Structures are given as structure tokens and as C-alpha cells.
Amino acid sequence: MQTTRIAAMIPMLGVAALALTACSSEVEPDELTAEVERTLTSEFGVELDAVDCPDPLPAEEGSEVRCTLTYEGEDYGATVTSQGEEDDQINFLIEVDEEPTD
């Protein structure tokens, strides 16, 4: 069976921006995980097996968090980068690695 790489399915993923309501100066891991999964599903039509963002995303522009996406049984790394906070929302980008992790 041939596996389609997730990065090939989502060529514009690196330019996808989201906004989350922030109750503090960071997005908690559970909320970030849910938002990453929701965005990939709704914006790009990708059904992931699992998403895990174990660390909070700070609101400070340029802050990064690494997440793991499982797609068709393979794990991919993803970098979520904060674009800063505005009006109690944190905007961020998601960029999926081109190759699955070993």
C-alpha cells in the first residue's frame, strides 16, 4: 500500500493562520491540540489519526511549539509558531514536516 505524505496534501499549510481566544498569555496544550486538528480538518480536509501538542504556545511573537500529527499510521512533526497576540487572541501558523519521523 502506498502512503500519501501529509505535507504533499497540504502544500499551503505553512501559510495557514488561526486565532485562538487566550485566557492568559499562552494557549494550553489541550486547546492547541484541538485547534490544530480542527484547522487541518476544516481548512484542508485532512483526517488525522491523532494530534499531540504537549506544550503550551506562548503568545509572544516567534514562540514555537512542536506537535506530532499521526496520518495514515505515520507520525509527522509540525511546528506551530505564534504570530503574536491581538485583542485577546493568539494568531499562529502551522508547518508540517515534509517527511515522517523515524
Task: Give a description of the structure.
It is a single chain. The chain has 102 residues and is α+β, with helices and mostly antiparallel strands. The protein is built from two helices and seven strands. It has helices at 6-9, 29-44, and strands at 17-21, 26-27, 50-52, 57-58, 64-71, 74-86, 89-96. It has a five-stranded antiparallel beta sheet with strand order 1-7-6-5-3, covered by helices on one side.
Quick structural overview:
This protein is 20% helix and 40% strand. It contains 2 helices and 7 strands, in the order H-E-E-H-E-E-E-E-E. The protein is globular, with a radius of gyration of 13 Å.
Mind sketching the topology for me?
Layout: H1 6-9, E1 17-21, E2 26-27, H2 29-44, E3 50-52, E4 57-58, E5 64-71, E6 74-86, E7 89-96
Antiparallel strand pairs: 1-7, 2-4, 3-5, 5-6, 6-7
Q: If you compute it from the alpha carbons, what radius of gyration comes out, rounded to the nearest whole angstrom?
A: 13 Å
Tally the beta strands. 7
> Alpha-carbon distance between the termini?
19 Å
The helix-and-strand class reads alpha+beta
Keywords: Signal
Protein name: DUF4333 domain-containing protein
Pfam families: DUF4333
Organism: Nesterenkonia xinjiangensis
